[in-house]
Amino acid sequence: MEIKIKINNKEITAQDGKTILEIAKENNIHIPSLCYHSDLTPKASCRLCLVNIKGINNPQTSCSIIAQDGMEIETNTPELAMLRKTNLELLSAQHKEECPDCVLQYNCQLLKLAKELKADILKFSDRKKDFPLIEFGPSVVFDSSKCIDCRNCVEACANQSVGYLEIENKKGFNQITPSKTKSCIYCGLCITHCPVGALEAKSEFEQVEEPLKNKNKILVFQFAPSIRSSIGEEFEMPQGAIVTDQLVGAIKQLGADYVFDVSCGADFTTFEEAKEMVEKFESGKPSLLMSSCCPAWVRFVEKYYPEFIPNIATSRPPHIILGGLIKTYWAAKEKISPKKIFVVSIMPCVAKKYEITRKEMLFKYNGANFAPVDYVLTTRELAYLLKKRGIDLAKATPQKADNPFGEPSGSGVIYGASGGVMESAIRTATKILGNNGNPVAVDFPKVRGQEGIKVGQVELNGKILNVAAVSGTGNAKIVLEQLKKNPDLYQCVEVMACPGGCIGGGGQPLPQDKQIRQKRAQALYNIDEKKKTRTAFDNPDLKKIYKDFLKNEKIIKQICHTEYKNPKS
Ligand code: SF4
Ligand code: SF4
Ligand code: SF4
Ligand code: FES
Fold it and tell me: I need a surface site. Which of 123, 295, 392, 457 has the fewest CB within 10 A?
């Protein structure tokens, strides 16, 4: 049903059931807001989005009031401006400002609002200055001295069906506290929903800055599929702008010796996962196969549904396979000692920081132990590093990624969106099986889009496979509970822990919402559509490396596969 309201005397028609703030946003009417996030229920804690509603005495929070037919609303009186300014100054007394050390300093909502509202955020002394820094494992850091008690992180974590964040009353504040009984899965969604940077990825750019200065190592950067359509936002470029070649140029300008594209690693993951799919399929009664490239999802299974561990694909994640190939195949080809190579993965993800610490990701080759990747930086960390060095991505000279890991198939690129891993595996599985000599379909639109659970049927050589592509572990829980009751419901399940997949990852530029995620994902599908090679199966570099290096099952297992067990911590 439609309603008619007036905002600042402008007549507006809107859908019933929306908040005033939502309607204002849809109509490009700016109302300052901080604690509101379109993924979450409004908590109305910051009180910056105040508006006047005719007939109601006191200003109201526009994020929590559902607009009613005939409402007349004012958003920009001097009194409202004064109230917002005061509220922001009071709020800032709960947030210890340490801007020079903060990774958000170039893109901070709080600072932007302070400028807009002409608020003095240092007016009141910091009431939380003694509050501690708390680490959630190797991926996430919570600076409780910056927390403004909005509880967005608690809801984001509960929506993941994890519930690691609890609220305790400490020194008169409702303080966020990690659970003593539950385990964090390092998805980073608490970070992407925190409006003031109190939660952040554990920072590693300092460790990367050192080898960038001291060039006694060969520095190899590899960037994930989803980065190419997200990092531009950090440099005032439009949402969903494709910046693949500028990104390579900017990373080279930073000091990297080689830049490779993790989408090429995704082609290897796809090829191996498609082989697992075909193997199960040819066994007569295909059993359940679940994707393994999202470390937060894998940890969710290990911690909360360990009975499904045997169903997780053994194919290693793309940046791990690529790191392994860089330190073995490529090092030998280039006559470089693997010990001299330092691999940095640029990831949309904070869980990848945890992933590279897992012993399951290490491998043995020619009698030596290898860690495929030395450091993981998030998209935000790379943007910070570039800005710190005065490198503007928008002005960087475009360059192609280095070969032989610079030209992925379209399949490798769509890995960054929910459903992309599944679609890629189906494309290559269909090719492996030959589709009874019939032309092979490439597009599987049923597993695309921003919905949390997408289901479809795929025909492989005349047999039907039921598939599901899931994003968010809260949705994964629904699917796992269904599978517990009916194990034949799906044969292939892809899960990415973040909304919309890695394009909505915990390390991606902020802010992010459904529309932004949609634009980032669409950009990846646009790249895929234009690619000459759209399946991992047809990637000529991959074919050559299987022929020259991944020649037998032993070496394929060493570089491309692992096994998951229930981790101790
Ligand atoms: S990283 Fe994910 S699981 Fe851990 S506290 Fe944040 S939202 Fe919860
Ligand atoms: S950590 Fe951030 S999201 Fe969580 S309550 Fe504090 S300010 Fe809000
Ligand atoms: S969906 Fe992507 S960004 Fe999010 S936790 Fe998984 S791998 Fe990381
Ligand atoms: S955005 Fe409405 S109260 Fe914070």
Answer: 457
